[in-house]
Every structure is written in C-alpha cells, then in structure tokens.
C-alpha cells in the first residue's frame, strides 16, 4: 500500500481484475490482505469469525508492531471500532442514543442555518481571493466539524486543532515520532474536553457518556470514553468532509449530472448515494482479523491477519455494479447498494447524519452558486497523504459571485 495515498481507482481496477481479495504490504513491511470485491466485502463484514479486537492481530500480539507504527491507533484505540461481542453492543448502545432518527431529524434546521452562514463566508472568501476560495476550508470542513462538536459538547476553540490531529491520526505517511506525538496530544485534548463536561455537564453526548460511566463504573472506562470521543470526532467529520468534497468534484466534472439535480430530474440524495459508491470517502479501512483461517472468494486469509476493507474498490466493482461501474451516474437504479458506510454489526451509526449534512450542503451550495466550478483541473488537485481517507487536500472553486 502506498503510504502517500493518491487516487486509488486505477490500482483498484487492476487488483480487481485478478481477484476480489489481494495480498498487500502495509507501511513497515507488515503483511496484510485487502478485500476489494463488493460481494466478498459484504460477506467478510458480516462474518461471525472475523473480529475487530487487537487481541486477534497476530503480529501485534507477537510484539512485531512498533509503537510509532502509523496505523497502530486504528488497531489499539478502545472503542466501538475495536470492540467485539458484548463490549461492542454495550458501547454502541450508549452512543446510539445520539443518533436516533428523531434526534438526527431535530438537527435539520440547525444544519440548514449553519450551511447558509458558511455559504456567506465562502462568498466573502471568494470576493477577497479574486473570485476563488477553498471550498474545503470555508464550507466542507466547518459544517460537519461544527455539528459533531455541538453533539459532543466540544468548545469551538478546540475544533481547528482537533481537525489537524485527526488528519495526523488517519495519515499513513507520517513518521513514528509524529504519529506518537499526534496520538498523545489527541488523547490529552479529549481528556480536557471530558474534564470540562464533568465539571459542567450539559445535554451533549459526552456528558451522557460520563453519566453512564458514573452510574456503573465498569460500563465505560476512561480509555473507552476517550476512544469513543476520538472515534466520533474523526468519523463524525472526516468522512462527511470527504463526501461533500468528492460530490462537488464529481458534479463539477460531470455537468450533465449537475443539471439533472438542479432541474429536479434526480434528487440531491441521489447525488450523495452515487458519490458514496463512485468515490467513497474512505478508501481502505483498517482492521479486521479472522479468528480462524477462512476462505473468501477462493482465497485463504490466515487467522490473525490484519485485513483492510476496500470500500473504494467495492464501489466500482463491475461484477456488482455493471460494466459502467466507473461512470458517475446519479440516475443509477441498480438493486445492489454500495457498502461505503459499512455493513453488518459495525454499520456506521452516523450514516443518517452524514447523509443529511451532505444533502443539505449540496442543495444549498448549488442553489446559491449554480455556476460554481473548479478553479483547478481535478487531476491537478493534491490528494490526501493516506490510503485510508479518499479525497483531496484542497478544493479551490469559483463560486461565480
């Protein structure tokens, strides 16, 4: 796996042409495997003999993974993404209260208001920048970051630093010292957030998690609390940031599809679903481990092997999505849905919120700026330095104001 990331689709197509499961080498020469095919990934994500807990990571348990390994946080953070069985159900039950259909729907007016305010800021930034502004900085980032921080009760003063640190945590190209420093600072900052909410509890999710911990001391440990906050901060804004960014890129480079959405011939929700399939905000997500040797699509995955879920590859798998899987088409009606928000017990709890945020963002953006276009050719945009996140680092646009 290229630690510098880059656009994954050409490599995915090459690997998929050979098999739905591939042997890969992670940074640090750690052997692993990746599941790329849609049907193989769907089966793998739901298998009861596949675990998320680091106790099943053979190389880690053998002491072969150094502390500064850039992907170690994905394996060792204590929270829903690394819990199995009863522990997973316990943690998911606590957090799921923040994502009930009623609570998510109640956020709609606030999201619409924040979106409108950010569009004013985007217009101002473009006016000050000769007609060009970075859409990620002024719109795609502050919207989901603001929403998730409100949910968690995180003060606005911490938001920029949390975004920087979360970028470091998901990076696959930084060195051991940088990785360890970013993780330490992230834990320290989230501990500060938790301490603030302990002293001044509110109606936010962090206060609710702390209250649950205090009611029964062994229900939620301090490590689980910090790990859950870390997960929520990263997953709650990085994926939606990439989703909005990738959707804008797709629409600007497929103006016929943009016209369908603007004319009402397709919905903005259709745009979101097709973007999730065609250019998944997460490319390869770490890790799952077989608890015994398993065979998937004819390939043996040995017990204890770290396995990447290849969401960007599965989204363009022609075996599942047809020979035109590489085409961006918001009118696509194929019965097979994408897997970009997961499948099975670990399906993304925040999926309804992410879909709502992206749908509102895109509709308001292209209603306010119907002629919005990229200021730089799409293939010249700098890519994320990670094979986990799938997007670009900047998105200079001309709103047309």
The ordered string of helix (H) and strand (E) elements is: HEEHEHHHHHEHHHHHHHHEEEEHHHEE
* Proportion of helical residues: 40-55%
Give the helix/strand class. Answer: alpha+beta
Q: What's the number of helices? A: 18
Largest sheet strand order: 1-2-8-5-3
Tell me the major beta sheet. Answer: 5 strands, mixed
How many angstroms does the end-to-end distance come to?
A: 42 Å
Rounded average pLDDT: 90
* Rg, Cα atoms, Å: 21 Å
Q: What's the CATH first level?
A: Mainly Alpha
- Mind telling me the CATH superfamily name? Cytochrome P450
**Basic shape:** globular
Find the CATH topology: Cytochrome p450
Quote the beta fraction. 5-15%
Number of domains: 1
CATH architecture: Orthogonal Bundle
Number of strands: 10
- Poorly predicted regions are none
Structure description:
- This protein has 401 residues and is α+β, with helices and mostly antiparallel strands.
- It has one domain (9-398): Cytochrome P450 (Cytochrome p450, Orthogonal Bundle), CATH 1.10.630.
- The protein is built from 18 helices and 10 strands.
- It has a 5-stranded mixed sheet.
- Strand 6 (294-296) and strand 7 (299-301) form a beta hairpin.
- It starts with 8 loop residues before the first helix and ends with a strand.
- The model has no long low-confidence stretch (mean pLDDT 90).
